[in-house]
Amino acid sequence: MISRVMSAELAEHAGQRVTIAGWVHRRRQLKSVSFLVVRDRTGLAQAVTARDLPGEESVVEVTGTVTASPQAPGGFELVAPEIEVLAEPCTAPPFDLYRPEPGATLPTILDHAPVALRHPRLRAPLEIAAAGVAGFRETLDGLGFTEIHTPKIVGSATESGANVFGIDYFGRPAYLAQSPQFCKQAMVGVFERVYEVGPVFRAEPHDTVRHLAQYTSLDAELGFVRDHRDVMAVLREAMAGMLESVRRRAASAAALLGATLPEVPAEIPAIHFTEAQRLTSSEEPDLSPAQERRLSEWALREHGSEFLFVTGYPMAKRPFYTHPDPARPGYSNGFDLLFRGLELVTGGQRLHAYADYVAALAARGEGTEAYEGYLQAFTYGMPPHGGFALGLERWTARLTGAANIRQVTAFPRDLHRLSP
Amino acid sequence: MISRVMSAELAEHAGQRVTIAGWVHRRRQLKSVSFLVVRDRTGLAQAVTARDLPGEESVVEVTGTVTASPQAPGGFELVAPEIEVLAEPCTAPPFDLYRPEPGATLPTILDHAPVALRHPRLRAPLEIAAAGVAGFRETLDGLGFTEIHTPKIVGSATESGANVFGIDYFGRPAYLAQSPQFCKQAMVGVFERVYEVGPVFRAEPHDTVRHLAQYTSLDAELGFVRDHRDVMAVLREAMAGMLESVRRRAASAAALLGATLPEVPAEIPAIHFTEAQRLTSSEEPDLSPAQERRLSEWALREHGSEFLFVTGYPMAKRPFYTHPDPARPGYSNGFDLLFRGLELVTGGQRLHAYADYVAALAARGEGTEAYEGYLQAFTYGMPPHGGFALGLERWTARLTGAANIRQVTAFPRDLHRLSP
């Protein structure tokens, strides 16, 4: 490996001659002195010299003597540097990476993602996302979950019916999976508690700030629950673990973005759907974005919580595999988790008896033929179980205050965008 | 949550009345006494009673008094049990799950995966895979890598040209990504060191024991390397971390399968391709499976290592983005890692200068048009870098001695199989 110290470690090498390596983040050539700011994966470091400097985004190794300098990033700089250029750019970035704010529109940023993401503010959400996923896995590993990997190519477009991408699968029609729902349920029969972090695909024909054609779904499913409340308790732990991981692994990225990391209450407040309707003076069978915002405001005001569970959504609005509330038929054991005015997670208890699946499909006017692979698990004895799915990009956007989900996705895919 | 103790914890509750929950793994009704073996995610537990017992794969809660019993799994059993049935199967499994070996052919097993994977020997490889992936991430996190998630839908079929799945992408043609190669290289410009664990797709028209249409690729890529040897050093760490994780997290699964976990030498032996040719008396520009086996035997004999790096494969046999060996043009800075006679990992140093990409494509008679999104990263200054990709299922198969990769994949996808 190129022998180097990281820019964040300069202070530990005061007085020594060391080599750093990275990209020229900024050069400033004054009359008698020049400043070279080098960016590596840990931050920025400055070198001071009298010579001509390579241009921005050149890849350099800089060897110099670590010297205290209050104006330098981190309080130290390299003096008397020797500079070796490892690679030179042949194009200038579409905007200056060294300015505090990226001076470009979102389409320009996305068209130039390979270089735009080098901007510290554009990179930061991806650091936060990585930390969040690590916390999700850590928490569930600690609770006895097993990680699974399920097929993204499926033989029938059954789960939601619409908005699937079709594939030519060796001359046969197939589809990209919209979720690992069926497989993760089947795997409850094997491991009791499973999770998957992976891509899911939605052929969303709408151009919105909240939807992508591909996103990263954090899915969990667990057996031997009493009802949906046990699933909610696990989700609470996962959410707390994700945020704790951001605090531990990506604090500076969060600080750079001015993101306030929420506290997760020991018990997240939960209200029934009918209560949510009453609070928002609605009789609609689903909650609108405006109602979700009002409910989040209510939870903050009444419970001091940025999180709110809404439980018991009407069965008619939930997928056929949803378990009804035994005490209030017509209402489900399904829930959403709202965070800062937005639905962030959907989950619930599922049906577990084969006969209940047959009946649920019949009630929706469907036969079991298209679901044979799925329903097989339930013919062999499945425990009461439930789970949830959380969209990573939506979580990251909500946490960092990004208005558009594309701002927190490295290479987004949507109605118009297939590259880079 | 259903209040229960896990079967593996019975010994800690000797003399107490506790509840376990799981599936009826086996029932044996003798004249005066019946044995009920319950399977949960931690193992097996036995209850002894005089009553009639629910059938295999019934989901049960069993409350009884924990009593020492040398013949019982774990040395303890539940006596005077009350049994509650949570769910009953409506079909018998296609083979007995309680027999030590699954008594079914591979097609039967795959057709009935949701129940077949409940067999301890069929579940074990998936436990080992999960442990391996956890170790992979742990190791790379510790080395300053950042996890990324890249698009699985791409606009052009450029990386290898053949064997891609076509998608109807909002009326436009698109393709399933064969690897995150291009994106992970671009992200070296952002994070220097990145990894991804995710699905990749190959429209393999051949029906072999080594290939699937979808598999889980463990990809890593890192910048500021001197050459491919730095990449090999990181791969060595990742491999050791994966195996250490299996020892720590899935030792009983490995023991059940009789899998011998290899030692990873502090430095894995490495030989140049020309030396590999000489040792196998070959002049072919690539290594055949038979040669790979002979080389592995040689490494074990000469170096006591089950791992062997072969470096310097001819440029003509490697992808266009491969970095040549500056000292021996015609040979590459690419490598394979052989393990127990099989190529397990492919990697190498990549080109990093934009002009070198243009020249490499021209030398293969290709223009840059189809690669624009990819090549963009290299116009902005990229450090010397390299990486590798490891197929999770192939790793698991090799480690557990599975003859067919489908034996270690939950729901495999191939030429013939799209369900379950």
TrEMBL record, chains A, B:
Record-annotated membrane-spanning stretches: none
A GO biological process held by the record: aspartyl-tRNA aminoacylation
Record bears the keyword Aminoacyl-tRNA synthetase: yes
All residue ranges annotated as the Aminoacyl-transfer RNA synthetases class-II family profile domain in the record: 136-420
InterPro entries: Aa-tRNA-synt_II, aa-tRNA-synth_II, aa-tRNA-synth_II/BPL/LPL, Asp-tRNA_synthase_2, Asp/Asn-tRNA-synth_IIb, NA-bd_OB-fold, NA-bd_OB_tRNA
Swiss-Prot/TrEMBL keywords: Aminoacyl-tRNA synthetase, ATP-binding, Cytoplasm, Ligase, Nucleotide-binding, Protein biosynthesis
EC numbers for this chain: 6.1.1.23
GO CC, alphabetical: aminoacyl-tRNA synthetase multienzyme complex; cytosol
Region (Aspartate) residue spans: 181-184
Reactions listed under catalytic activity: tRNA(Asx) + L-aspartate + ATP = L-aspartyl-tRNA(Asx) + AMP + diphosphate
Enzyme class: ligase
Positions contributing to ATP binding: 202-204, 210-212, 343, 391-394
Subcellular location: Cytoplasm
UniProt-annotated site: Important for tRNA non-discrimination, residues: 73
Residue numbers binding L-aspartate: 159, 202, 346, 350
Stored SUPFAM superfamilies: Class II aaRS and biotin synthetases, Nucleic acid-binding proteins
Subunit and partners: Homodimer.
Function: Aspartyl-tRNA synthetase with relaxed tRNA specificity since it is able to aspartylate not only its cognate tRNA(Asp) but also tRNA(Asn). Reaction proceeds in two steps: L-aspartate is first activated by ATP to form Asp-AMP and then transferred to the acceptor end of tRNA(Asp/Asn).
Annotated family: Belongs to the class-II aminoacyl-tRNA synthetase family. Type 2 subfamily.
Protein name in UniProt: Aspartate--tRNA(Asp/Asn) ligase
Species per Swiss-Prot/TrEMBL record: Nonomuraea diastatica
Encoding gene, per UniProt annotation: aspS
